[in-house]
Amino acid sequence: MKNTQIADSFDQLADLLEFQGANPFRVRAYRNAARLIRDLTEPIAGILADGQRKLTDLPGIGQDLAAKIETLVETGELPQLSELLAAVPPSVLTLLRVPGLGPKKAALLHSMLGITTLEELQAACEAGRVRELKGFGAKTEQAILDNIQFAVKAQERIYWAEADFVVESLREHFSDCSAMERVEFAGSYRRGRDTIGDLDVLVVSTESDQVMDHFEKFSSVSEVIARGDTKMSVRTLEGLQIDLRVVEAKSFGAALQYFTGSKDHNVVLRGLARQRNLKINEYGVFRLTDEGEQYIGGATEEEVYGAMDLPVFPPELREARQEFAWAEQGPLPKLVELSDIRGDLHAHTDETDGRGSLREMAEAAQQRGLSYLAITDHSQRVSMAQGLNPERLLAQWARIDRFNATLTNFRVLKGIECDILERGGMDLPDDVLAQADWVNASIHYGQRQSRAQITERILQAIEHPHVTAIAHPTGRLINRREAYDVDIDAVIKAAAQHRKILELNANPQRLDLNDIYCAAAKSQGVLIVISTDAHEPAGFDDMRYGVLQARRGGLTKADVVNTRSLPQLLKLLKK
DNA sequence: GCCGTTTTCGGCCCGACTGTTTTCAGTCG
To answer: Is the CB of A63 under 7 A from strand B?
Structure first.
């Protein structure tokens, strides 16, 4: 049984328990375990098989959960889950996806009206039966009707790059709001997550009404969900929820810290605060005394974390993974920055499926401050992209040689994105690959093969003497295609052993490797290359998304190959 | 359900907003 399946089982168990009104902390224990297991790169079954290690060594896994995991791995099911599923139809859980409906109200709808699906819920609202339930009313009934449509959409998260577009236009919109002293965007956007569920906007102002009035006039706003004294929520025409919070300057740092999250990071932070007889909320840090609470800071994030003798964590690290342990051990790693990037080692031209000539791509890279670029067009197997056979590839490399002779302070490297064939093995002969400066190996076909097959293909590529890097190693397309079934732990170990590089593809729809796998690769000493996979000149702008993801994985400049100067890179490649 | 140089029991982050109450429960982040 795969880690994701175990995690899904625990999440489902948590949903069902919550629905039944179980102790919320017990529910949280299941959710924490699900998150931990999902983030693990190593298969749980491997830990179980290893006599040296115990599941209870994992934080948040006690005797009970360890036994349940063991049962799941051994039998493929969990009696407790089966029983709950027999008692509560799984479709009932979809009710929880309606904004405004939580476990209590959903349970009441189920027990009193026998509602099990969204369709039945809609019918009951339209018949006016919901308003008669205790705790419900006409307004609640109407809100449910209005929100049922979002039950499906609420699951969808938008790409970080899309959220960034909204952020830029909102910044512009706020720029002529005189009541506003400062605006910042928090939440998962600030943490640089690959996808964003909703947008959190933080404004410093003493005139919250004016700010909210101005906010409501933002052209994308389609409806106001809620509006209070300090907090307002709207939904945009595209269905994105934006939460606005207005705070005083002396609370700005505390509010920014709070709204940046993550929720789990905040839970840990506030737990630590309690141990010190402090309280942290969105208004500041308070010392708890017999006389009451005493404000001791909160204007900046430095004041909040400083009160705890903690460093100001880069937002990308605030996921309650390793950051608190790192802070205990010493200074945090200095994360890689966009300005550290010196070159791009994965790009296409109009020779295959790109929309820019060799010269246009090179100029675009140079304009962005890069000093080298590998042209890595597709190989012959990728016929839809007019992939290159040996003759065309060698001809392209000859053109690159002539082009390089005209350049100063910039170099185009002769590369290829060589397909890893379905049956295994590389799509181009060894004697051709041997002449390349940089070889990306990647899978395009046979993505639905078994875990053993896919993993073996990639391991072969890693062992191939002329392969430099594995490009988009898991093949995921965010919101569109799952990663292929690959043993990423084995891939990372092999890359470490054979000193091969793994790509972090910066395309905002890929971001593959993801943050967790980047961290796992780093822990094994595997170098990462952040590449845009640009198919047109503007594609080089994607580098920032890749850097954000790398930062989330805790990568430093030294961990990223293309922060090196060209001479350093060539030395590393022994070219 | 987890966890422990303040605890093996009794904690577990904290507050805003809404709608339904007549002082608060539920939901959300």
So the answer is: yes
